[in-house]
Amino acid sequence: MGIRGLQTFIEEKLSLLNQFELHNCNVLLDGNSIYHQMYKQCHLTCLFGGEYDKFYRYCKQLFESFRICDVNAMVVFDGARLDNRKLSTVLERSQRRVDYSTRTSVNTDLSPLLLRQAFINVLDDMNIPYVSALGEGDDESVSLANHLDCYLIARDSDYYCYNLFKGYIPFDYLDINPIEKDSYHYLSAQLFTIDVLLK
Known about the structure:
Protein name: XPG N-terminal domain-containing protein
Number of domains: 1
Radius of gyration: 17 Å
Largest sheet: 5 strands, parallel
Organism: Rotaria magnacalcarata
GO molecular function, one term: nuclease activity
InterPro entries: Asteroid, PIN-like_dom_sf, XPG_DNA_repair_N
Shape: globular
Family: Belongs to the asteroid family.
């Protein structure tokens, strides 16, 4: 769910992120943070039925870019079980969304109800493997990324605190447009590893 202020701290200290060419590797994506962030990046609104078709095409572009760059992706979603700490955070955020949506008749900052399903449709159509954790997926995502020796891509400042063997790529710092170089294509990204923070 993120650590308040940590994302801003990292962004202000961009020296903590290293320029990186993402290609010919495996990546694991935090599904929940990715599809919400992608919807925001599309500048779509839930006022017109969610504009799922445009969202679908944008998500498909990401995974097509991965294929061009020989990047094998897999996705982990959060599950349904919540511990007490997570439950209080979810309830607080839900209440803020309800308060916000009732204060304005034109709300463009809410995610449409079927957003997750639209993202899963892309994964199914492109044969991208995905799983759901039993509860909060952060720990499982980190364990799986380390076990499979792959980079983790997300939009969640919690991952700055984990010891990811390959590293964490903040989704905001991943350009999904392939770049051609010599005999291969890559995606330009910024990579974070915990050892940089500890120096």
